[in-house]
Amino acid sequence: MSRELDVAGWIFVAVMALAAVLVPFATLGTPDGAALHMPTYLVQLFGKYLCYAILAVALDLVWGYCGILSLGHGAFFALGGYAMGMYLMRQIGTRGVYANPVLPDFMVFLNWHSLPVAWWGFNWFAYAMLMMVLAPGLLALAFGWFAFRSRVTGVYLSIITQAMTFALYKEFFRNDFGFGGNNGLTDFKDILGFSLQSDTVKVGLFSISAVALILSYLISRAIVRSKYGKALIAVRDAESRMRFLGYRVENIKLFAFVVSAIMAAIGGALYVPQVGIINPSEFAPGNSIEAAIWVAVGGRGTLVGAAIGAIAVNFAKTYFTGALPEYWLFALGALFVCVTLFFPFGVMGMISRVRFRRRRGEVATETAT
Asked: Where do the domains of the chain lie?
């Protein structure tokens, strides 16, 4: 990691820490109409961007530093979201349309008579958080164990990760699968006894998302700067040579893949209470491809660039889908093509290389004189 990226990373951490403190003040501590007042709809919008940034950092850990282009990370994000959504649905109780103290409304509507086994325990927050980590973590462990031991790499690995998320996408659409079918889970009331409609809870979720993003970045940074991180990069650059030297390449890849999946799931869990819904569309392969675009735009193998790319692209998406909705997908595709052709290292990579060349030119000038 270059000095420029290291400095940029600490600046990013400082900005996120300030946002976690100042945004609640701007929302709750200033009157409506004041110059510094931030409405709650913007708090929720930017909170969603931060969750996407966590997903981007998770993807950059395996793509930028291990060379695994996963087109299925949206599945881990969605699984974390479903774990949180199941907990929130169990908190509704008799306040639902059918006032059933145990079954969610969609189960009553479908004439379910008992709670499926998969839903047991989700009335406890601690259990839901445990499942939020275990479900995507075990899926990544099983998938990675078979894929990496079989030495599947490159475009073939990308294809089967996309097949994984597409299979989950089709399965969760089924009404008899027990997770709300195509409507998903929604109409959440509260979390830990606090109303999700409260401004305090909304800014609290934003601050927690900012802290989670900081921790995701710092954990990923610690991994890539460690001795294991050097082995991870070596696998990316020369996998065959690492095997020849006696390293268990599949284990090196597997650890990064599982950690990345858990990070993505945490982002999904924070995403759901802020947007108020989780449905099978979050498993759509297009979402995982879009996450790869965020990382490519910000800068693959930079971590901080991935987070910035996610925030910037989604901000642009919010604007253009409102102003020019019919052209957004064309603009997104053109952005990816331009970045691939002209800025293959992304925004942060380009900035780092420009500064390096400028510094090298200054050294050469001083030497000549």
From this structure: 3-284
